[in-house]
Design a protein that fits this description.
This protein is mainly alpha-helical. It has a single domain, classed as ABC transporter involved in vitamin B12 uptake, BtuC (Orthogonal Bundle), CATH 1.10.3470.10. It is built from 14 helices and no strands. Helix 9 crosses helix 13. It is globular.
Length: about 350
Amino acid sequence: MTPRQTSELTSAGSSGRRKRAVLVLLLALTSSSAVAAMTCGAYNVAARDVIRTVGAHLTPFVSLAEISKLHDTIIWNIRLPRILMTVSVGACLATAGAVFQGCFRNPLVEPYILGASQGAAFGAALGMVFPQFFLSIQLSAFVFSVTAVTAAYSLARGQGQTPAVTLILAGVIIASVFSGLVSIMKYLASDSVLRGIVFWMMGGFYYSTWEDVALIGPLGLVCFLAMWTMGWKLNIISMGDEEARSLGINPERYKLLLIALATLATAVSVSAVGIIAWVGLMMPHATRLLLGPDNRYLLPAAAMFGSIYLILCDTLARNLTSSEIPVGIITSLAGAPYLFYLLRTRGRTRLD
C-alpha cells in the first residue's frame, strides 16, 4: 500500500469517527431539547420533576405515589405525547426531504413537491364537510395524500422511465388540481367547518395524544429504518442514472421504492398534524452542509435536526402568546429567509 493510499484510508477513518461523534451529539441535543420543552408552558415544571415523572412510568426506581398528580397530568398526559409527536413528525419530514433531494438531485426539492400536502388538505376538508362518509379526518387525509403522489407518479411515468423534471411537473399539476378541490370544499363548508379547515391547514400539535403516538411513531420508525438501510443506494442514485446502472443498480426501481417510503412518511405526518412547511427543505440541506452528502450519515442526522427544529418551533408556538400559535406559521416565518439563502447559494450547492 502506497503512502497516498494509507493517507486516504486514515482520512476516511477520521471523517467517519467525526460524523459518528456528530450523530451522538445530535442525539444528546434531541433528548435535552425534549426535556427542556416539557419544562416550558403555562405551568412551568422543573427538569428534575420531568425526569422523575417519566421515570415513574418507565422504570421501577420511582413510584407513581411519589409523583404529584398535577405533574403527572401535565407531563405524562399532555406534554410528553406532544413532544414525541414533534420528534416523530420532524424526523419523518426531514428524512423524506433528504430522500427526495437525493432522488431528484436537487437541494431545493421538499416532501410536498408531488402534491402530498394538497392531497392531504383535500382529504381532511372532505372529512370535515362530509363527516358521515368518512371514518376519520386523519384517515381521509392520509388516503388522499398517498393518492395525490400516486397520481403524480403515474402521470409522469412513460416508456418504463420517470424523468425527474417530468415528475416534478406532474406534481405541480396534481397539486393544482387538489388545491382547486380544497377551494370547492371551502366554498361548500359552513362557517365553523371552514374555520376548522383553515386551522388544520396551518398545522399544529394541539390535540396530540398517546393514540397518535402509537400510530405515527411505529410507522415513521419503519419508514426511517427502511430508507436508512438504503442510504448507500441513495448515494449511488444521487450520482445519476447512468452511473447507477454502470454500478449494477436499477435506478428506477430504487427511486420508486425510496419515493414510496418518503411519501408514506410524509402522508402519515401530514394526516396527523396538518401541513407543516419547510422542515423537509431546510433540515436536510443544513445537515448536508455539516456532514456532507453521504446519506448513511445524512439521513439520521437530518431526522434529529428535524426533531430538534420542530421541538423548538412548537415550544415557541406554545409560549409566545397566551393563545397558541399554529406551528406551521412559525416554520414558515423561519423558512422564507432560509429559502432566500438557498436560492442565493444554489450555484455552490452540491449533492455529490
